[in-house]
Amino acid sequence: MPQPVEISLSVNGVPHRREVEPRLLLSDFLRHELRLTGTHVGCEHGVCGACTVLMDGEAVRSCLVFAVQADGAEVGTVEGLASPDGTLHPLQEAFRDAHGLQCGFCTPGILMSMIPFLRDQPTPDEHTIREALSGNLCRCTGYQNIVEAVQLAAQRGAAG
Ligand code: FES
Ligand code: FES
After folding, report:
1. What is the average per-residue pLDDT within 27-48?
2. What is the pTM of this model?
3. Quick one: pLDDT band at residue 160, thresholds 50, 70, 90?
4. Position in ligand 2 atom list of the atom nearest CA 110
5. Edge-to-edge strands, sheet with 52-55
């Protein structure tokens, strides 16, 4: 059995130090060690995008990253989007207002994918939004409202 490895990382601005098995996935670390279950796990193969989190500001699939690879990183999960007083992030508000939610299983991954997308492309057209969303599978087939939610967020200047 491989020796546990000590890692230090920040998740949603909170520092954590833990000993983890080298094979532990970042998705399992977030969900099981830190109890941040907003990061969803669908395919565990990097296909569905449900497990998307931010690592040093960029969207990554946490089912394809080992926790040890996040050593020293700043990780952001969906739990970190709203303010501590419960005020939703503008992107979350746009999803609520444009009915971009159905069962919501895919939503955390989509939100975490769209944060860096809107940061890098604050005024995307519909085609670009659809392309950006193509890496996130929604089984409720609700893409129309999801696209509209991202458009609304962009119009409101929700970048970042
Ligand atoms: S669970 Fe990670 S991409 Fe599907
Ligand atoms: S809202 Fe149900 S999977 Fe996307």
Report:
1. 98
2. 0.96
3. low
4. 4
5. 14-20, 5-11, 74-76, 52-55, 58-61
